[in-house]
């Protein structure tokens, strides 16, 4: 009986030691997993950054590439935009100008919350006015008494938070002598019309040639397969 008790005690002790060893092994494995988890942080941060970028919407700005105006006249510089957000009081429009030969643009007009702020100490003093309507997604302005020194690139930049990512629209403005713009426009119209007429004449001639060829083919058709094969019909 005493021996059996001793054997039972030894068996219980062995089981307890095995359980303790297993627990220690599990604990060390957990420690290794905990030590490895920081390696996942860069990937998680990158994923979070990409998600935030995808959530940022953008404003699309539209302007003509080129614009011509006569010297001494008023020019309306068109600029429209689209935005996925409702136009709010935080929406703003900024116009800047980069003259020919200049390395950087200068700001000369700002509009926000229903108020226009023409830039001071610029060549556009008292000449630039607001001509748009943000509710209609129009950010146009007008510049009075255009001068030759106003030749250059005009940049329209629109912000409508949270739509803040935007590629500004750029207009290349060319100021011309009075009368030259009409001649230039007439020449352009005549050139386009001439090209259109030439294309039309070519198409008509092509159709006529095809019809004549089909007509001649029918005249030479004998009905005999051997003869037609020799004639290349």
From TrEMBL:
Belongs to the myelin P0 protein family. This is Myelin protein zero-like protein 1 isoform X2. The chain crosses the membrane at residues 183-212. It comes from the Eukaryota. InterPro entries: Ig-like_dom, Ig-like_dom_sf, Ig-like_fold, Ig_sub, Ig_V-set, Myelin_P0-rel. Pfam families: V-set. It is found in: Membrane. Residues 42-167 form the Ig-like domain. It comes from Pantherophis guttatus. One of its GO terms (cellular component) is plasma membrane. Keywords: Disulfide bond, Glycoprotein, Immunoglobulin domain, Membrane, Signal, Transmembrane, Transmembrane helix. The keyword Cytoplasm does not apply. It is a single-pass type I membrane protein.
